[in-house]
C-alpha cells in the first residue's frame, strides 16, 4: 500500500490517539509537532487544521494520501473546519467523531459540525479509550486503500 490516509482536525481533537488505537499502540499520544508517517496513515498537527497559513501544507501532503479523515471532537462546541472544506481536496473524505466515551460528548452536535464541512459522506463515531468504532473504521479505511 503506497497511499495512506491523512488525518486532520483541531488541536487536541484526538487524532494521534485515534491513530494509535487503529494501530493497536497502547502508549498515550503526545502533542504532534510535525507530520508523522505511519504504515498507512499520516498524522498531522492540529495547528495545520486550525491555522489557514498551513492549509497549503495540508493540500500538498494530501497528494500522498488516497483518503482524508476529518476529525471532530465530540466534546467541542465548535467546528474548526471552514464550511465545505472537504471540497478543497481532490481525494475522498470521511468523517470521524472522537471521544464519544466522554461525559461531555455530544455525538449529534459533532455530526452536525462535520456535515457543514464534509457533506453527505460516512461518519464514524469512535473512542480511543474504549475502542468503540475503531475496528469498523480500520476495516473501512483498509478497504478504501485497497481500491
Ligand atoms: N475521553 C477521551 N479522551 C481522549 C480520547 N482520545 C484522545 N483523548 C484525549 O484528548 C487529548 C488530545 O489527544 P491527542 O490524541 O493528543 O490529540 P491530537 O488531535 O493528536 O492533538 P494535536 O497533536 O495537538 O493536534 C489527550 O488528553 C487524550 O487523552 C478518547 O477517545 N476519549
Ligand atoms: Mg496529535
Provide a descriptive summary of the structure in words:
There is one protein chain. The protein is of the alpha/beta class and 147 residues long. It has one domain (4-146): Rossmann fold (3-Layer(aba) Sandwich). 31% of the residues lie in helices and 20% in strands. It is built from 5 helices and 6 strands. It has helices at 15-23, 47-50, 55-62, 107-118, 134-146; strands at residues 4-8, 36-37, 41-43, 65-73, 92-98, 123-125. It has a 6-stranded mixed β-sheet, with helices on both faces. Strand 2 (36-37) and strand 3 form a beta hairpin. The longest helix has 13 residues, at 134-146. The chain is globular and about 35 Å long. The termini are close together. The site of magnesium ion has 5 residues, from helix 1.
Helix/strand order: EHEEHHEEHEH
Radius of gyration: 14 Å
Content-based structural category: alpha/beta
The hetero molecules present are:
guanosine-5'-triphosphate, magnesium ion
Low-confidence stretches: none
| Overall helicity | 25-40%
Amino acid at each position: 500500500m503506497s497511499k495512506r490516509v491523512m488525518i486532520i482536525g483541531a488541536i487536541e481533537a484526538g487524532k494521534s490517539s485515534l491513530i494509535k488505537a487503529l494501530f493497536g499502540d497502547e502508549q498515550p499520544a503526545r502533542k504532534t509537532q510535525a507530520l508523522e508517517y505511519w504504515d498507512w496513515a499520516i498524522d498531522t498537527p492540529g495547528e495545520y487544521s486550525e491555522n489557514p497559513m498551513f492549509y497549503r501544507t495540508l493540500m500538498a501532503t494530501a497528494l500522498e494520501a488516497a483518503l482524508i479523515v476529518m476529525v471532530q471532537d465530540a466534546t467541542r462546541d465548535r467546528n474548526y473546519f471552514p464550511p465545505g472544506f472537504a471540497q478543497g481536496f481532490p481525494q475522498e473524505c470521511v468523517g470521524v467523531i472522537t471521544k464519544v466515551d466522554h461525559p461531555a460528548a455530544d455525538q449529534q452536535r459533532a455530526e452536525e459540525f462535520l456535515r457543514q464541512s464534509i457533506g453527505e459522506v460516512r461518519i464514524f463515531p469512535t473512542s480511543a479509550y474504549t475502542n468503540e468504532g475503531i475496528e469498523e473504521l480500520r476495516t473501512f479505511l483498509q478497504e478504501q486503500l485497497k481500491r
